[in-house]
């Protein structure tokens, strides 16, 4: 049980840290979660991380919380889920509470507004990095169908301007159909 306790403490501190120092939304935290949980701790595989992102993005709610739920559950079941959620929501709750309390001071502060504007460029770079790494992960699997779906989804979103929700749903439905098809083929 000590091992599970150590995992829970590490999970809580990791999600707390990631949530506290991640600015720019859920896609930024995905990169940091990959680095921490895949590269550093080896708790999950890279393919599982891709699945985690797909689940987190397609479920309602913030990607950071959804991602924490999936990782927490995989590592320690329901207890891990609760620990990861608490670790993930404490920092934004505290930060938003402080910003709300001092809203007028922040709103009119030139330095704060410039800092936030500068952070946008960094956030864009991190999101581009995540996109590149995840795309490479899909290509490395040498699954031509998955690569074609990825390229088609990119074209649908960036060229055709189709809403991302529809793309995620369509990709999910395609994945389910493909899985059923492959399982039936293996039985025959």
Automatic annotation (TrEMBL):
Presence of the UniProt keyword Lipid biosynthesis in the record: no
Keywords: Cell membrane, Membrane, Transmembrane, Transmembrane helix
GO terms of molecular function: chromate transmembrane transporter activity
Transmembrane segments: 7-32, 82-106, 148-177
Short name of one Pfam family: Chromate_transp
A single cellular component GO annotation: plasma membrane
Protein's UniProt name: Chromate transporter
Origin organism lineage: Bacteria, Bacillati, Bacillota, Clostridia, Lachnospirales
Membrane association type: Multi-pass membrane protein
Compartment(s): Cell membrane
Domain of life: Bacteria
Family: Belongs to the chromate ion transporter (CHR) (TC 2.A.51) family.
InterPro entries reported in the protein's UniProt record: CHR_Transporter, Chromate_transpt
């Amino acid at each position: 049980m000590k091992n599970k306790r150590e995992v829970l403490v590490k999970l809580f501190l990791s999600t707390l840290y990631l949530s506290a120092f991640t600015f720019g939304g859920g896609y930024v935290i995905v990169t940091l979660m990959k680095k921490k949980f895949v590269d550093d701790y080896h708790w999950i595989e890279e393919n599982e991380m891709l699945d985690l992102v797909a689940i987190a993005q397609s479920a309602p709610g913030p990607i950071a919380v959804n991602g924490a739920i999936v990782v927490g559950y995989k590592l320690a079941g329901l207890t891990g889920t609760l620990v990861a959620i608490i670790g993930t929501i404490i920092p934004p709750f505290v930060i938003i509470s402080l910003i709300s309390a001092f809203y007028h001071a922040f709103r009119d502060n030139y330095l704060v507004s410039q800092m936030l504007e500068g952070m946008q460029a960094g956030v864009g770079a991190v999101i581009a990095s995540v996109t590149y790494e995840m795309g490479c992960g899909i290509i490395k699997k040498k699954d031509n169908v998955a690569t074609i779906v990825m390229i088609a989804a990119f074209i649908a979103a960036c060229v055709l301007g189709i809403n991302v929700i529809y793309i995620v749903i369509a990709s999910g439905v395609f994945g389910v159909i493909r899985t059923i098809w492959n399982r039936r083929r293996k039985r025959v």
